[in-house]
C-alpha cells in the first residue's frame, strides 16, 4: 500500500474498469490501482468524475486535496472513530493536569533532543561557529529547565525558545549560495528554504493525522498545543518529534545534494485575501494577520515533484527502533508511535516516549 501524488492544473481523474486513470491530454495518462493505494494526494486543479469518486469511496482511500501551492483544501476520510470508549478516555484526560504536563514535557523534550543532535552534527562537520556553539548550549539549558517545569505554558515557552535557537543555527547546515534563509517564516514563506520547510512539515502533518484516524483516535483532542475550533491539535502534538529528522534534515539535504536549484522556486506577491498561498498549519495566529501585500517564495510544480519524491524516499529510510529492538522505516515508526500513544491513553503504559534520533 502506498501514497500516490497527482500534480496537475488541468488533469481529470476518471474510472476505467476497476482502476483510476489521470487523463492529462489525449496522449498522456497515468493509471492508479486502488487495491495498491493507501492514500491519494491531489495537488492542483485535478477534476474527479462521479464514477472515480465512488471507486475511491468503495476502496476507502484517504484522499487529500491541496491547491497548486500546497494549501490544504479538504479531505475524503473514511476512518471515522467508532471506539467511543477510547475517545471518552481522551476527553477525560484533558482534565488531568499531571497527564498533560508529563505529555507536554515528553513531546518538547523529544523535539529539543532531536534539534540538539542535528546541531551537533553541524558542529562536527567543521562548522566551528560561535553561533552554533552558543545555540547548542541554549538547547542544553532548556532541556535542564524542562525537567522542573510545572506549567504547560512554561513548557510552550521552552519549545518556542528552542525553535528560535535551532533556526539560528540551521542556516549553517545549508551550503549553496542561492539557498536563502533569514529565520523561520511562513504564511507565506519568505525565502526558498522556508518554502521547502513549510511544505515538508505539511506532509508530515498529513501522515501523522492519517495514522491517528487509522487507530481510531480523535485528532482534535490534543494535550500540548492549544485547543481551538476545527484544529486537529493531537496531530500537531505528535508530529513534533518528526520535524527535525524528517523535515529539517531532508530540507538541508535537498539543497546540499543539488536536488533543488534556483529554477525550482518562484516569487509571488500575495494580498491578505489571496487563498492560494500555503497556510502552514501551526498553533499560532500568524495566519490571521491582515496585510495589504506581501511577497513570498513558493516551489514550482517541478520543485514540488522533487520534494515529494524525496520525502517518500525518506519515509522508506530504516533506522533502529528501540521499543521493538529492530530497524523500521519512518512509515512504520509513525504507526508504531501512534499505537504507543493509544496504549498510554488506555492506561497500558504510563508515559509517552517520543522518537529521539541519535
Q: Topology, pairings included?
A:
Layout: E1 2-8, E2 12-16, E3 19-23, E4 29-32, E5 37-44, E6 47-48, H1 50-58, E7 62-66, E8 72-76, H2 84-93, H3 97-124, H4 130-146, H5 152-170, H6 192-214, H7 233-239, H8 243-256, E9 265-270, E10 294-299, H9 301-315, E11 318-321, E12 326-329, H10 330-345
Parallel strand pairs: 1-5, 2-6, 5-7
Antiparallel strand pairs: 2-3, 3-4, 7-8, 9-10, 11-12
CATH class identity of the largest domain: Mainly Alpha
Taken as a percent bin, the fraction of beta residues is 15-25%
Rounded Rg: 21 Å
Outline: globular
| CATH-defined fold name of the largest domain | Four Helix Bundle (Hemerythrin (Met), subunit A)
Number of strands: 12
- What's the CATH superfamily of the largest domain, by name? CRISPR-associated endonuclease Cas1, C-terminal domain
- Sheet with the most strands: spatial strand order: 1-5-7-8
Please outline the major beta sheet.
4 strands, mixed
Average pLDDT over all residues: 89
Helix content: 40-55%
Structural class: alpha/beta
The string of secondary-structure elements, in order, is EEEEEEHEEHHHHHHHEEHEEH
Tally of contiguous helical segments: 10
> Which spans of ≥5 residues are poorly predicted at pLDDT below 50?
none
**Termini, distance in Å?**
29 Å
The assigned CATH architecture of the largest domain is: Up-down Bundle
Domain tally: 2
Summarize the structure.
The protein has 358 residues and is an alpha/beta fold.
Explain how this protein is built.
It is a single chain. The chain folds into two domains: 2-76, Ribosomal Protein L15, Chain: K, domain 2; 84-345, CRISPR-associated endonuclease Cas1, C-terminal domain (Four Helix Bundle (Hemerythrin (Met), subunit A)), CATH 1.20.120.920. The chain is 44% helix and 17% strand. The chain has ten helices and twelve strands. The protein has helices spanning 50-58, 84-93, 97-124, 130-146, 152-170, 192-214, 233-239, 243-256, 301-315, 330-345; strands at residues 2-8, 12-16, 19-23, 29-32, 37-44, 47-48, 62-66, 72-76, 265-270, 294-299, 318-321, 326-329. It has a four-stranded mixed beta sheet with strand order 1-5-7-8, covered by helices on one side. The protein has a four-stranded mixed beta sheet with strand order 4-3-2-6. A hairpin with a 4-residue loop joins strand 11 (318-321) and strand 12 (326-329).
Amino acid at each position: 500500500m502506498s501514497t500516490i501524488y497527482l500534480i496537475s492544473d488541468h488533469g481529470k481523474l476518471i474510472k476505467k474498469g476497476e482502476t483510476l486513470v489521470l487523463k492529462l491530454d489525449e496522449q498522456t495518462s497515468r493509471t492508479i490501482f486502488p487495491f495498491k493505494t493507501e492514500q491519494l494526494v491531489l495537488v492542483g486543479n485535478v477534476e474527479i468524475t462521479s464514477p472515480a469518486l465512488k471507486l475511491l469511496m468503495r476502496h476507502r482511500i484517504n484522499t487529500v486535496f491541496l491547491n497548486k501551492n500546497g494549501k490544504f483544501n479538504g479531505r475524503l476520510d473514511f476512518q471515522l472513530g467508532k471506539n467511543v470508549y477510547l475517545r471518552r478516555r481522551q476527553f477525560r484526560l484533558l482534565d488531568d493536569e499531571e497527564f498533560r504536563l508529563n505529555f507536554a514535557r515528553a513531546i518538547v523534550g523529544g523535539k529539543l533532543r532531536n534539534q540538539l543532535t542535528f546541531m551537533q552534527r553541524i558542529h562536527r562537520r567543521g562548522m566551528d561557529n560561535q553561533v552554533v556553539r552558543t545555540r547548542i548550549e541554549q538547547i542544553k539549558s532548556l532541556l535542564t529547565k524542562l525537567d522542573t517545569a510545572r506549567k504547560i505554558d512554561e513548557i510552550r515557552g521552552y519549545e518556542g525558545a528552542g525553535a528560535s535557537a535551532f533556526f539560528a543555527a540551521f542556516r549553517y547546515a545549508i551550503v549553496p549560495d542561492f539557498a536563502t534563509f533569514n529565520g523561520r517564516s511562513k504564511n507565506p514563506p519568505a525565502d526558498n528554504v522556508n518554502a521547502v520547510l513549510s511544505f515538508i512539515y505539511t506532509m508530515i502533518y498529513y501522515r501523522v493525522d492519517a495514522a491517528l484516524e487509522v487507530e481510531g483516535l480523535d485528532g482534535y483532542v490534543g494535550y500540548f498545543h492549544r485547543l481551538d475550533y476545527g484544529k486537529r491539535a493531537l496531530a500537531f502534538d505528535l508530529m513534533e518529534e518528526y520535524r527535525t529528522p524528517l523535515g529539517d534534515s531532508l530540507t538541508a539535504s535537498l539543497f546540499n545534494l543539488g536536488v533543488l536549484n534556483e529554477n525550482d522556486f518562484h516569487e509571488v506577491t500575495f494580498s491578505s485575501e489571496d487563498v492560494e498561498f500555503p497556510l502552514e498549519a501551526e498553533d499560532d495566529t500568524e495566519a490571521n494577520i491582515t496585510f495589504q501585500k506581501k511577497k513570498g517564495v513558493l516551489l514550482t510544480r517541478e520543485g514540488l515533484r522533487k520534494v515529494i519524491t524525496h520525502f517518500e524516499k525518506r519515509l522508506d529510510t530504516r533506522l533502529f527502533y528501540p521499543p521493538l529492538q529492530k530497524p523500521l522505516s519512518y512509515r512504520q515508526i509513525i504507526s508504531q508511535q501512534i499505537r504507543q500513544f493509544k496504549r498510554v491513553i488506555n492506561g497500558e503504559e504510563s508515559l509517552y516516549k517520543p522518537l529521539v534520533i541519535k
